[in-house]
Amino acid sequence: KSGRAEPRELRRLRSMLRKPNLPRHVRDRTYARLRGYLTRRYFEDRMAVLSNSPVVNDFTLLVLGSPEELYRDFLEPFGGDRRLPSLRSFVGEFKGLLKAVSDVRRKAA
Question: How many CB atoms lie within 10 A of CB 63?
């Protein structure tokens, strides 16, 4: 954790998730808000670093948090003329590879 105090919005969302017997739709909406908040903060922090860097001149910063976002926000727009697998197929293979890597890391530990 950094030396900065946790922002009020982050504290509010986390405390909401700690409530017992929170209805599923409220929990799901709160997780979505928390994810959105953290993604925005990460993006802003990274942009500040990159914008102030003398090494990086021209860049596109993408924050991708799921295989669906990787497919939709990176592969489709930047894939060129390549024929992509279906989203469902891509996500299935991505998750399979992720599990394989996790299994290897667990065995190595």
Answer: 13
